[in-house]
């Protein structure tokens, strides 16, 4: 049954831990706790004209959470705040039974949909990323006019 | 999904096992005329089924568990919260599960009360249930707040003309019964809301007697806190709800401490979860909450326009019958205007317990006593009253059995 | 009358509908290996029957009612109190029904706590459940009392050698788990009792994890307060008990206000009923209480000498199996001495939620997380653990399924 | 069913209200409330060498309570504290399913046994009587040495 949760794709992502670590000098960072399990994700970003130039994460969490953070580490380069938000929303949608977001790696998390208690494990890194980008303020709002405000 | 609303008192009654002929032991196949609904209603089969399903196929503690029973129990429990929220037209995050109305009001007295200072005023009324009096007396002792009461008219209504005098700038909260558990009178909300608004006081409504009579649109009421119990609205005992405006919930400190309401605990300090969790310490009453979810689904399946009309007809039949009995006095409104089907009366020279006892011999279940409203009974110069209260499953036979029983009580006692 | 005590794990399991093959949806006819008993146990048929009987043949509000359903409900509810009292070898008047352990401890923190002064000390330990930590933190905020904690040894035991240092003349209450919900360790009572006696402090035992493992002779324990929950001892959720020495109950002011706990209410003041009523505000959780009464009857029907021996054998089998797994560390006692069948462990490189999830795929229900004991997990330098906990209906198959599942988790996760 | 509760004997006792009223100068008195229903009984006694010489009661209560008080009014003359206590205990025993006490009038209360919620209604006047005699101290303890203490 939920064995599929720990298919190779997921455990490989977790082992790979792309982006794990800290940045020398981050432009923005955010930490989110899951009070239910005590898990914690910190996301740091460096920005270049509203797009992610570099990213690092520290995860104290389960395989699902670490795998999700690693997928972010792999794909976040160049992302705008709006794009990150869109991925976050689409991923939550997939866990609610909808289609996977544009990043193909995220389809591996589809079996989590049936395990409501684990949704937050997957979302935690994404929510932390969005929070870090929001905390960056106008600098992360996009390459356009918002950056000039 | 609840079925399309409909109302047929016979099929409604058929859903309640205890109301069937012969269900109550010792009644020799007769059915009970249950008119003690204001104390606790009866429970329909869908609520029992939900309870049994939980205990036999989904039982586990909620939250924090990932195994299939914990998932199923959490889904059922949080599903019940969602049902209750939908029923009241509010968001899930504003539904705090408590053990009942009394606990809900105690939580407000403890949490909101913690933000009050000596000399701040709380306004209640003379017709309140002890559950909406004693928590404020305890708070008065603890924090030196002042409890004031609106008087009640000879018709048993809260004297809203007194609002101007009683509600001062020091008033922080007005806490009133949405519907009286003794007289059935429905609160005249508009002047109360205006008085609270004028001084910036919060408004708490004790909805214990309102929620058994159909869905409540909380945003339309315009109150700040709302409290009610499951057991009076076809759900199990041991569950209730405190609703509050989200800003109030966010701002209030917790009242009770324990597992589930925390963010982080160290040996020296605790930080707290966001609402509603912050106010739900320890393992919640999971089965009863799931039962409440099934009960609001059942309520949503009733055509309340028709059910209310039915209740009005029965209430009129009851009031007409009572008016014809010499030496009987109804406490509170004697017409259909602004009331629900809760009617209390006193019988010259007959003690309410004796009346209720004679009624029992007629298979009629009524309550005699002060109904946890001693100040109101004092207001009317009596020690207690006999109360008959209706639910959608009651019918004319129930009312006639009541009236016949009272005639016998008059013969025996008065 | 409970039957003559006996113990046969197969017939014990047969009494629990949810443990039958195919009872849990989606399991294709397999049975669940339920090892999450420390969170909530399962419910046997006699408890369900008592609940259903109440809802379908006896349901009414208790006290103050004279009709036959109110009589039946009151008899069943007060009968449950009598059963619980007998089960604990105490008088009915000392049994306060609450909604659970957490509420019971909050009542002590509110009522007994009301008699404390700033600077008075309360001693807990590092291994307490949040339900026996947070109420004291809240009390510390409210009244300026000081909360101190006894340390825990590397074996997961409360360091009783520290009592002399930690328990001072200012100590008014020592509040400790009778049995740890993480390690299964049973409190070494004698030195604690002596330390409390030496300074005149009261002793509260959190019995939530003790009461599912057989009757408790409270007078023999020599404590002053005892708290536990129904849902961990085969009863419904939403009911618990606070027991206290009669003199303490008589002396304490009420914590919660409402109907049922009063003697007389006027608009300006309330006088209070005697215990246990004084501490039972509002309509109690009647059905759940009746379920608890049936549960203690069921417990009384078990031969606990045999059941304890059975539990010890299973615990040994579990401990042996766990000891053989590389990278696995048991938190707390690793032998049978001074413990019950609650075992928590950490697996190198594997998160407790992942472990519990893999176990679920093996039809094993275990809990992963901090088990509402963050300070204890911090003490052991971990964020959480995976916990397996036994009840009399568990058998060697359950333990073997657990061990097989852990082997798989190691392969998949570590 | 519980119709028998209000048989003629009981309602006649309640109507008779023997002993209702107050004493000019009581030696001792006691008031008991039933917090469940708000009923209240006050018993006043005058004593003569440890025996009841005169008695009066005020009852705010139901038929059962008033009937019980009237039975006391009828039979209490000459009673000692110990005798009153014995009657009280025996009556409680009858309500618990035992035999009626020595006063034949009390047999009429037998049907109350089946109605647990009404036991206190019957007991209230008896408990008040015992309390009044206890409150009298040594004076009510009997004609013998206790009176000399
Ligand atoms: C030792 C201990 N104390 C207190 C509690 C709290 O009990 P409840 O959540 O039923 O109030 C628990 C269980 O959750 C426990 O295991
Ligand atoms: C108007 C009103 N308020 C409060 C309560 C208290 O509710 P509960 O006893 O369920 O806490 C009741 C019923 O008992 C009531 O009728």
Describe the structure concisely for a colleague.
Chain A is α+β, with helices and mostly antiparallel strands and 149 residues long. Chain A has helices at 8-16, 63-75, 81-95, 119-135; strands spanning 28-34, 39-48, 51-60. In chain B, the strands form four sheets. Chain B has a seven-stranded mixed sheet with strand order 2-8-7-6-5-3-4, sandwiched between helices.
Strand content of chain B: 15-25%
Strand order of the largest sheet of chain B: 2-8-7-6-5-3-4
Radius of gyration of chain A: 15 Å
Distance between the termini of chain A: 52 Å
Tell me the greatest interface: B-C, 96 and 96 residues
Unreliable sequence segments of chain A? 143-149
- The count of strands of chain B amounts to 15
Q: CATH fold name of the largest domain in chain B, please? A: Aspartate Aminotransferase, domain 2
Task: Describe, in plain words, how this protein is organized in 3D.
The complex is a heterotetramer, with 2 copies of chain A (149 residues) and 2 copies of chain B (414 residues). Chain A is α+β, with helices and mostly antiparallel strands and 149 residues long. Chain A has a single domain, classed as Sufe protein. Chain: A. Chain A has helices at residues 8-16, 63-75, 81-95, 119-135, and strands at residues 28-34, 39-48, 51-60. Chain A has a 3-stranded antiparallel sheet. Chain B is of the alpha/beta class and 414 residues long. Chain B has helices at residues 9-14, 45-58, 68-88, 101-111, 134-143, 163-166, 189-199, 218-221, 246-251, 286-300, 304-323, 352-361, 374-379, 396-413, and strands at residues 33-34, 95-98, 121-125, 146-150, 171-177, 202-206, 225-229, 240-244, 262-265, 270-272, 328-331, 342-347, 364-365, 367-369, 385-389. In chain B, the strands form 4 sheets. Chain B has a 7-stranded mixed sheet with strand order 2-8-7-6-5-3-4, with helices on both faces. Chain B has a 4-stranded antiparallel sheet with strand order 11-12-15-14, covered by helices on one side. In chain B, strands 1-13 form a two-stranded parallel sheet. Classes of the chains: A alpha+beta (149), B alpha/beta (414). Chains B and C meet through α2, α3, α4, α5 and β9 of B and α2, α3, α4, α5 and β9 of C. The structure holds pyridoxal-5'-phosphate (2 copies). One pyridoxal-5'-phosphate sits between chains B (100-102, 129, 131-132, 177, 181, 206, 208-209, 229, 231, 372) and C (258-259, 282-283).
